[in-house]
Amino acid sequence: MVTPLRTTRLVLVAVATAGLATAGLSAQASDPSPPVAPVRQQLPLPDERVVRVHVPGSEALYAMEDAGYDFTGQYERVPDGVVVDALLTAEQLAGLDEYGATVAAQVAATTASAPSAASAPAAPETAADADAVVVGRVDWFTTKGQGFLSVEAKTDALDGATLTLSWDGGSVEMPPYVDSGEYLYHRVLARVDGPRPDEVTVTSSLGGSATAPVTDWLYETDADVDRPGYEYGFVDGYLNPTEIYERLDELHAEHPDVTEIVELPYRTNGYQRLAQAVFGTANASRVAVDSLAWGHEGGNDISVELADPGVASSALDVTVDGDAITVHLATDAAGVVTSTAAQVVAALNAEAGTLIRAYTYRGDAGAGVVAPAPPTLLSDFLSAPNSVERGPFPLRALRIGEHRDGSKPGVLIIAQDHAREWVTPLVALEAAERLLANRDNDPATRRILRNVDILIVPSNNPDGAHYSFFDRAGQRRNMTNHCPLTGAADANARGNWGVDLNRNYRVGSAIDGYDGASFSCTSDTYMGPDKLSEPEAKNIVWLAETFDNLKFFMTVHSYGGQLFWQPGAYIAEGRITTPRPPLRDETYYWEMAEEILSNVKGLRDTVVQPGNVGGSSDVLYSSAGNVREDLYFTYGIYAFGWEIGGVQWNPETGEWDSGGGFQPDWPEAHQQYQEYASGVIEMFEIAADYAADQQPATTRLVQERQPDGTVHVTFEPSEPASIHYTTDGSTPTTDSPVYEAAAMREPGEVIVVDETTTFRWISVDVKGQLEPPKRFTVRVR
Fold this sequence. Notes:
By secondary structure, this protein is an alpha+beta fold. The chain folds into five domains: 1-44 and 284-381, no CATH class; 48-103, 2-Layer Sandwich (Alpha-Beta Plaits), CATH 3.30.70; 111-216, Immunoglobulin-like; 224-269 and 386-692, Aminopeptidase (3-Layer(aba) Sandwich), CATH 3.40.630; 699-778, Immunoglobulin-like (Sandwich). Its cofactor is Zn(2+).
């Protein structure tokens, strides 16, 4: 068992200062006071709390992110915007009105209880100009003994329509899903208190109607934790990154025959900061000082005093005695201090520039007169124990498998891109623990080890995560301060630095005009100064380029209960997404998702709802420059993003309970890491199935004759495959037209045939295996 260093959240405890109101006199004073020992400056971080807010749409959401608002999770699309949890300061809470945002009432669910059939609105008679209604996904699932319908449908009415979902036993209105000003579809999660319906009907207020069969979402499966003798649940408490990687090294030492440590080439920038202080209260008279050395390498030993000389007509002067810097402020004929912030900054840089760098506050001209201050030690404000190294962190991956030579399909798992997501590294670590503990007693595990090449990076943001553990629990990004001295580079802004590692990649980047990432160095979605500016992102690209057998990828995040893939970003003007995966890959993603999430369900009946599965820009929001897009579009890797910690149905209250946030109480965290590790294990089994697949798909053409004499043609492959076809008699190739999805989140298109036509086609499955050419003549009578 892994013994944690600590199982409760740690927060920054600032060192109290004393005597700040009493300035000691310098040696220039006519009656000097005894030397004053320097004290460490106390600069508390702003108080923050999680508040559920309503934001009126994506445009406001992105504007608020640019302004530093931190949206943490539990996103819910509502007809007039987004309801989401946000980590807010008191100032941000007071500023919601500026963006049209409001504090939201607690949302019980994305569920609408169904009224009785008698109270359901009657469907209007179909008129000649009725709108066309298309039903997309119709999913049925149960959790904790309660049944639900998740239904998506759309209308072609340009001026909008009210859609109503009905089934044998009830009905409910379907809210429209509008994002970035574009109508996507209507969707609803409806509670069903009766038996599972076989079909549903969606009717429009404009007269359109469509009926569709109900399909089951998720399925009963023998979860890995239910197998006889299977060991699981290896972690007893939260672990910081130092502890995580120590355990990774121990696993390799315990199982050297099936593991190796892969040293990643780029070390992080480190859990380290320059030592700093800010003197003064009014911006015009503030002086900010940074050490040139890291705090732990001597910066924390430097002190600065702003001394009133206590005499008239004294000139501004700076003296340096070892690590002690004294600024003797200038005075006028009456002995009143006259030195401005700009003058003090210039004097400090001229006389103490080998130790420190001084600057005026956030670009201010510095025309205000400074106030004297006692000897003050600069500080890096870092509180981790000595067991946490302050310098660059050596990132590494644990590679697991009997054949680690590139001959087997590879799976890459990374976690904790976002520092405050404490459960996510435990998901990755638990998956590794299970593989190695069960290698001798579980046939399914042995099959994985024989047929899959696994790489696990359990904490891809160790610097930020250490900061989250020991200094500021809400830290999302890494710790790198890219703010200019004219911006928020001073110690008062130290809780707002860092790069969002999941916005630092190359495809669909903010630089290319995609939304959902910020250019502001204090935004929690800051993309960084350039694509791949951060070592943590460079390492993931290095893994993809070094291990060309990688076929599958999962980045584990929290919280919200989503599983998604491409497209992950869009340009808001016109809502232009990154390319949508072809029907083959979209189908494969859905198949994999259902397998992964069915295994998650096996532990405590947790259901990731189908409305939270799919392209992340379609079900959640745009996230420019995310890692999934880069790995899929650049290297052809099937790349998932996972938001663990979703809601749980509470049968006692009839509501959905929150997943507990980023750092849930340990009993909840203990359940979360185990159930989602089961999903990761299933992903390894999918890779083993991929390795075993030696047969191409087989595809059949399906024709349905219509009353108007036309024939509707669709293709049905035996497994996910790209179907290339011709209708002009030519031999199909992979350059021939491809059979596409009818629309977003819909199955294959319907080809309308109005004259006798011969179809020739081939198919290519996800392994690139080619089905021999086929042909079929569709005869129109």
